[in-house]
């Protein structure tokens, strides 16, 4: 990365839901933007926390014992090992940070291919 | 952290410049908000990249060979070891991510005390 990363512009370059696109690297992590709508799959990551920041819209992060609602400008970290299921009633745009190569479903066999944009 | 973190609300709780406040932990890193204005000190971090996301306003990240301007919704990662000097003509609000305990000046003797908010 040699210049500023404009997150809205990066998000304008694709339409697919639940398919994170890498925009930068940070200490061995991928910084990604993603468009989401509807319900994702229940999953957890045994080895990493999961960072969510809402850039546009609103999401719920459903966990087994509670649900956290995130609106634009709000963030949440799902601790490693905690099962969660993101949900968005309408399209929402997120910034995600995960260790490079982390499968977004928690399972390499069902994970979205990691792409950059 | 047990609930959503509203970054604007966290920023409303203090006025001091160049004094990052922790709002969450993520994989051994502190996620922080900070208000900045004017010129910081030239410094580098030998062991970590430096993550900047502008939440409000505009900053320059001055490096020895170039300057990157960041506006609201734009981010940049200063690679570890690269000397940089953040600058903001008017007050700007940032999200920062650094390994827990990283001195913000690159030097423990001159660093701001790490506080949470």
UniProtKB/TrEMBL annotation, chains A, B:
Gene3D superfamilies linked: Jelly Rolls
Residue stretches making up the Cyclic nucleotide-binding domain: 38-76
Cross-referenced InterPro entries: cNMP-bd_dom (IPR000595), Cupin_2 (IPR013096), PKS_Associated_Protein (IPR052044), RmlC-like_jellyroll (IPR014710), RmlC_Cupin_sf (IPR011051)
A Pfam short name: Cupin_2
TM ranges: none
PANTHER family: 16.7 KDA PROTEIN IN WHIE LOCUS
Identification of the protein by name: Cupin domain-containing protein
Species of the source: Pseudooceanicola antarcticus
Alphabetized CDD domains for the sequence: cupin_YdbB-like (cd02226)
């Amino acid at each position: 990365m040699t210049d500023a990363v404009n997150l809205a512009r990066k998000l304008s370059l694709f339409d697919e839901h639940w398919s994170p696109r890498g925009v930068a690297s940070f200490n061995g992590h991928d910084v990604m933007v993603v468009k989401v709508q509807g319900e994702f799959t229940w999953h957890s990551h045994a080895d990493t926390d999961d960072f969510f920041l809402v850039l546009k819209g609103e999401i719920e992060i459903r966990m087994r014992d509670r649900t956290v609602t995130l609106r634009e400008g709000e963030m949440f970290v799902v601790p490693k090992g905690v099962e969660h299921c993101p949900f968005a009633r309408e399209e929402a745009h997120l910034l995600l940070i995960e260790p490079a190569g982390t499968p977004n479903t928690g399972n390499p066999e069902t994970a979205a291919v990691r792409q950059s944009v």
